[in-house]
Design brief:
The protein is an alpha/beta fold. It folds into 3 domains: 176 residues, 3-Layer(bba) Sandwich (FAD/NAD(P)-binding domain); 137 residues, D-Amino Acid Oxidase, Chain A, domain 2, CATH 3.30.9; 53 residues, no CATH class. The chain is built from 12 helices and 19 strands. Strand 9 and strand 10 form a beta hairpin. The radius of gyration is 22 Å and the shape is globular. The structure holds flavin-adenine dinucleotide.
Amino acid sequence: MTQTHAVVLGGSMAGLLTARVLTEHFERVTIVERDDVAGGWSGDPDADPREREVRRGVPQGRHAHGLLAAGLNVIEGLFPGATHEMAAAGMPTGDVLGNVRFCANGYRLKQAATGMEAVSFSRPYLETWVRSKVFALPGVTVRGGHDIVGIEPDAARARVIGARIQSADGPPETLTADLVVDATGKGSRAPRWLAELGFERPREERLQVDLAYVSRPYRVDPALLDGDIAIIVGPSAAAPRGGAIMLQEGGRAVITLFGILGDHAPLDDAGFRAYAKRLPLPYVSDIIEASEPLAAEAVKYRFPGSTRHRYDRLRRFPQGFVVLGDAMCSFNPMYGQGMSIAGIEAVTLGTLLEDGELDALRFFRKVKPIIDIPWQIATGGDAALPGVDGPKDLGTRMVNRYLDRLYATAAHDEVVSLAFSRVTNLLDPPTALLRPRIARRVLGRRRLTAA
Ligand SMILES: Cc1cc2nc3c(=O)[nH]c(=O)nc-3n(C[C@H](O)[C@H](O)[C@H](O)COP(=O)(O)OP(=O)(O)OC[C@H]3O[C@@H](n4cnc5c(N)ncnc54)[C@H](O)[C@@H]3O)c2cc1C
């Protein structure tokens, strides 16, 4: 069934991918975005610096962003040929395990070709690519430079019939719509809007980590990475800080250092380099020392913790309205999940729209098990770090001990390394790591005992 008009609040990755999906179900789709976004795309990383510009609304764009295999699959599905086009536009590509060096708990996981592709990029360049595709779709209108003021209810306050928006110099306007999608990120005001309409606010779950990303652009000789397009050194229990190097379009790279619970990397050159030297493995520091920084200082992004709004637990929700992306759940970025989950949610929304008008509660319940998995990966991983106030029950302790052994095994065992990579790329659930074929390799003849 085709409905008439959908309005998407927020024109970042969740909003753009959702708008793409909605074009199959609505005659018109309007994206409202505070930043003055334009849809131009040259496909040449040196042609137009605006394609790499970090927008005010997406300050995380200065920091390392990776796209998991599950997310790339979504983008390929929505824009067939995407990977090929991104490569042609200068984004480094490679094998998701063969050319991505991943280190966990002080172990470098064994790399092997999987046949699955990965793309590396700067976040703004990827977003500009997606935006140019979405803005070019028939029926899509963009209201850049507009602030979303609120949602518009019907007289009975049971249905959302539009959104109130305002530009810096114009009068307020109401866009009427059959469906309003909130994709405004973790600052979403949907819980407040719901309360104003007399609905219950979703309960909030949080895991505080006091994480900071500290990033600096570099010119990196790709040969220094030995054929890899990205290196991720995750934190270990002994040294709970990490770093990432992502090769990007135009011969640039971003180097991000991250630490939790106030152990944040300094912004100045000497401090940044000294911090990198105390990561669990030397790969990031070695490349920093051999490369040319493209900015005098690094920049910082503080992330207090993962936050999940339990919309799936609500019993009442207005018709004509839905919330997704970071507005529903924002994950510790160390696990690189946000864009991929936003894409999966967008596709799920499309599946439900096949049946006609959206029932938001049905959507929230359908995506609940999808979100459970990355949430479990992120909060479980955080809980293993010293000082993080996460679940410490016997089950969690045993899982974390098992994972320690799994990382050690994956350093030399390709089968285990691939199984782990499929889980972190959201292709398989974490329970895949407990299958007998993997458990036998991880545990050998030893028995798993509680700490
Ligand atoms: C430091 C950091 C690193 C990350 N690394 C990764 C990674 O490696 N891989 C990954 O997949 N994800 C990563 N993420 C998460 C990822 O950035 C988000 O999940 C992704 O952008 C999807 O978010 P979103 O579109 O829901 O919200 P956002 O990206 O936050 O976008 C919200 C949009 O809404 C607009 N907006 C907000 N309020 C209003 C308003 N009132 N009026 C008008 N417009 C408004 C904003 O301008 C913005 O464009 C990272 C996040 C951070 C913070």
